[in-house]
Here is the input.
Amino acid sequence: MSKFSKKAGKADPAISTASLPDIIFMLLFFFMVVTVMRESELLVDVKVPEATELQKLQEKSLVNYIYVGKPRPKYQNVYGTSPRIQLNDAFAKGSLEGEIPIFLEKHRTKISEAKRPRITTSLRVDGEVTMGIVQDVKTALRKSNQLKVNYSARARAQQ
Amino acid sequence: MAKKSSRDRMKNEVNAGSMADIAFLLLIFFLVTTTIDVDKGITVKLPPWSEDEPDITKLNKRNVYSVLVNAQNQLLVRGELAEIDDLRENAKEFIVNPQRREDLAEKPTKAIISLKNDRGTSYETYLEVYNELKAAYNELWEAESQRLYGVPYSDELPLAYRKEIKGKIPFVLSEAEPTNFGEE
Here is the structure.
């Protein structure tokens, strides 16, 4: 009896946490595999419309993003509240005809020549924006011969 | 001597307690910097830009399905006021023309959808209209695929099959330069 009680008293009461890092690492790897790096900070509010005929964008590296929407509240004192275009990390300031080709070329140089025809431009446009500004973007894209375009949308819940 | 051996045994155990903290830190970093939503959308092919005026081709009126959207987001389909909800069925009927009506498309290969909007049209409406027209074609392709091959239409279908289907019912959507009446 004394033998048992002695052993119980000596044993470390703490639960072994040695496997905790393994569990966390497992979670970590899950998130690393499942998620994509956020490519740039959003300066405009974008709530893309809903649609049903959606196609997935295949290769992330072949996609460049153009955002159109109302500037976020913290930029509104500088840029106002009317819809603006965001290319990469900054607002398009000059004329679109000048900025969009530069933006596209910057992305194009990073991609091997064989893959260049498959470059897609993803237009992430807020639903409340009027077509005028979207049309200007489309015209600029057509002029710089970037014809593959994806209108970003959310999946609509099926009734 | 006995003391030394006990110290050795102590050394062999590295304290792994902080390992979890490090892993947590990495985990939180990834949680913050990443986005889960996959990019989806409607893929379109824009027409190439040309400076000169497009040739005016005389089209038979019955083969053209004109959709006009104004700045108040109202639809005018073939000269009549229409609702977005009816667009899909209406467009399908126009393309296939099952009753061989005189005022609808002669055959699917001749059908052309003409979409024109205003600069004041909201993007949401525009995309919804585009989505419905695309859906009409997708449903027709699906039906054709089922009829010919007995399999649903998808991107996994062999290219030859898809070409065959698209050859029978080609997706022709022409977008005109938008009008400018209602942009604020």
Remarks:
- The mean pLDDT of chain B is 84.
- Chain B touches chain A through 49 residues (CB under 8 Å).
- The first strand of chain B starts at residue 34 and ends at 35.
- Chain B has five helices and seven strands.
